[in-house]
Amino acid sequence: MIKYPVDSTHYPCCNAIGRHAPDCQPADPAAAALELIVQVPCMLTAPDDVSRVRKAWQDFAGVLDLEGAFSGMTWHDAKHAATAVAFVGANYDEPDVELRRRAALVRDGRDGMAWDDPVAMSQALAIVAKVLGL
């Protein structure tokens, strides 16, 4: 049994293995963001729990995909949104509340970030918060 599972996914967009290269611009930023939402919590999980955690986050990512949470976003915005979602989801007792707060900061231009599309960023965080609050 492999103690530390290895992700051998090949990403032809940047010819990388396991994850996108830092300078990669995936052809489908929404799909890449959903992959990131699954990968980040798995990286932070004890090896014995990775399968369970991966399944839970894959199910969650599937719902976000159906909701179009990251549709139409640039990779710059989508990867930051996905990272925030994974971080907040793994570290906050009420992640929906925190993501609504962050969505409002983005919407009001008070988050101190330079987004390609602040409206899309705010909407993405709000959609994720809505899904989490169901």
Q: Which features characterize this protein?
A:
mainly alpha; globular; two-stranded antiparallel ribbon; single chain; 5 helices; 59% helix; 134 residues
Helix content: 55-70%
**For the terminal residues, how far apart are their CA atoms?**
37 Å
Number of strands: 2
Main β-sheet, in a few words?
2 strands, antiparallel
Shape: globular
Radius of gyration: 15 Å
Strand content: under 5%
Specify the structural class.
Answer: mainly alpha
What is the average of the pLDDT values? Answer: 89
Provide a count of the helices: 5
Based on the structure, what is the oligomeric state of the protein chains? single chain
Sequence of secondary-structure elements: EEHHHHH
The poorly predicted ranges are none
If strands are numbered along the chain, what order do they take across the biggest sheet? Answer: 1-2
Structure description:
With 134 residues, this protein is mostly helical. It has a two-stranded antiparallel sheet with strand order 1-2. Helix 1 runs antiparallel to helix 2 and helix 3 packs antiparallel against helix 4. The chain is globular. The chain starts with 9 loop residues before the first strand and ends with a helix. The model has no long low-confidence stretch (mean pLDDT 89).
